[in-house]
Amino acid sequence: MKNKDQVIITGIIEGNDKILTCFYKENIRYIQGYVLRNCGNLEDVEDVFQDALVVLYQKLRSGFIELRVPIRTYFYGICKNIWRNRLRKKEKLIIGDEQSRYQKDTNDYLSMDIENQEREHLYKKHFQRLSTDKKKLLSLFFEGRSVKEISEIIGSSEGYTRKKKFQAKKQLLKMIEEDPMYNELKAVC
User: Fold this and answer.
1) Which of 6, 148, 171, 187 is the most exposed place for a label (fewest CB within 10 A)?
2) How far apart are CA 63 and CA 181, in angstroms?
3) What is d(CA 160, CA 176) in angstroms, rounded to the nearest whole number?
4) What is the chain's alpha carbon radius of gyration, rounded to the nearest angstrom?
5) What does the pLDDT profile of the chain (189 residues) look like in tens digits?
6) What pLDDT, on the 0 to 100 scale, is given for residue 94?
C-alpha cells in the first residue's frame, strides 16, 4: 500500500478534518460524474459520498478489510454500489451510460445478479468475523470434504466435528440474520 494511502486511511479512522476535506476535494468530481451520468442530481452525489464514507470508515475500523487497490479506487467502488442499489430500489437500471426503465421480463437476471452479489458480500462479511477455527472448519465442509476427513485434519472425533460444524453454522446464521442488510435482502425475495 502506498504511503499516501496509509495517511488517508489513518486520517479517516481518526476523523482528521484536514485529511477528510482533502479526500473529499480529490474524489467528489469522480463520484459526481458517475451519479450525474446515471440519473442522479447534486443532492444524490452528496448523499452517496457521505454514505460511502461511513461505509469506508466502518470497514477500516473493523479491520476486516484487505485493500488490494488504491483507497480511491476502493472508495469509488463503494459509491458505485451504493448508487446502483438506490437505482434498483427506485426500479431503474443503468446499462452503460443510458437509462432504461426496469422491465421485469428482460432484466430479471441483472437484478438477481446484484442481489446475489449483495448476499455474497453479507455472507463474507460475517464469515470473516468467525474465529479462525470455525472458519477453517466451515471452509473444509464447503470444499466438500467428509466428516471423517475433517476430523482427521483437525484432530477430533467425528461426533465432535459435527457438533462444532453445527455451532459454527448456527453462529454464522445468527450474525447474518441480525444484520439490517439481511432484512432488506429478505424483502426482495
Assistant:
1) 187
2) 20
3) 24
4) 20
5) 468 889 999 999 898 999 999 999 999 998 999 899 888 899 999 999 999 998 888 888 887 777 788 899 889 989 998 998 888 877 644 444 444 444 444 445 445 556 666 777 777 888 888 899 998 888 887 778 888 888 999 899 988 988 888 898 889 888 888 877 776 666 544
6) 47
156: exposed, middle or buried (Cβ count in 10 Å: 0-12, 13-18, 19+): middle
What is the spatial distance between Cα 178 and Cα 171, in angstroms, rounded to a whole number?
11
Q: Where are the alpha helices (DSSP H) in 15-70?
A: 17-37, 42-62
| Gap between the Cα atoms of 150 and 160, Å rounded | 11
End-to-end CA distance of the chain: 39
CA distances 79 to 32, 72, 137, 166, 187, Å, are: 10, 11, 34, 37, 23
One-letter identity of residue 149: E
- Report the C-alpha gap between 149 and 126 in whole angstroms: 26
Query: How far apart (Å, rounded) are the C-alpha atoms in residues 18 and 20?
Result: 6
Instruction: Find the DSSP H helices in the chain.
Output: 3-14, 17-37, 42-62, 71-89, 104-127, 132-142, 147-154, 158-178, 180-188
pLDDT of residue 102: 41
